[in-house]
# Entry
Amino acid sequence: MSAGSFDQPPVIIGHRGAAGLVPENTLPSFAAAVEHGVQAVELDVHLAEGELVVIHDPTLERTTSGTGQVADTPLAELRALDAGQGARIPTLTEIFDLLPASVGINIELKGAGTGPAVAHWLGIPSERDVLISSFDHEALRSFRALRKDYPVAPLFSRWRPDALKIAQAFEGGYINLSRKLATARRLEAIGAAGLRALIYTVNDPAEARALVRAGAWGLFTDFPDRINRATVGID
# Structure
């Protein structure tokens, strides 16, 4: 990975853009995150007719005007839906085109087949930092089998005794954890294992400061207006 957005802690990562301010995973949401000075953004991908589209859920009801499964909906129909305040479901290409190269992108693999699809879609690493993550560690392995040149981060919502070994086996240098798992002792162990901990989803400034002091490398937030390097003590 090139020197840049993920390399200088604390990394403030806009969760699904700026999900607490603007409808999540939309172009306006990512633009808002950039305006508030994030170092990186996080987004979720599914496949629709072979196209990588940016939406969190496998179904459409929660975040769009549509119904049914993302994977079963024709791409043209997906693109016609309202994803909030008139915004559309974007493609991964549109997000990369929108964001400045100085802003890193954490792509979370959500839908079936997204590991190989993202591996084939990505070009050679350039000046933009890209991190691939997933709760589905098999999806990460399918990506890793095709691409050794991008870092990966297994996601954990529940701790398991072999979590550090799993993360080290990917040789990606990162581990992404729920804030409930990010105790000071665990963050110390993660650092001692040579890993960088990115913690989700942190929306309270006092908690953000405590996590950074305890060794969190980066924080995902829905509110980049209140969680930023200035409010966590780094300006």
